[in-house]
Amino acid sequence: LPILDRGGRWVEGEALAREYVERLNVMGGGHGDILFSAEVWVARFLSLQDELDEAEAMFQSLLNGAEADVTPAPRARLHLFHGSNLRRLGALEEAEAEIQAAADFMVDFRLGTINTTPDDILLEFIALYQTWGKSELAEKYEAMREQVLAELPVDPS
Predict the structure, then answer these.
(1) Cα separation of 145 and 129, whole Å?
(2) Is 42 a residue whose pLDDT tops 60?
């Protein structure tokens, strides 16, 4: 799903995430973070397709129902993707708070929420501050991103 996100294949990503949710629901409970993560991805792909209100409703439902046993990375992605949606809605202060919440869930937010996208939190901070017209902050996070990517043992692209 992160690959479809980065590749701009959002319709396909939404369909795959929805199918994943459906199949997990058919199998019943006991999936831990997997079902939660799949639902977060459905909301993410809706947001990326400019279905902002529908995505916001899903994010609110997920935030209100977030289970205590969900591990930090999926919780961080929920806040990160919600922050991205809020940015698209023009709620920049709220978006900043959500992206910061995502960062706070991670031991080192500079390494992202998942191995395949080690810069996801940094990219959202950059997009937020570019949208907001806070170029000095966008540049700060861009420099941090370049440093982190340069230090990775493999090229993430």
Answers:
(1) 14
(2) yes
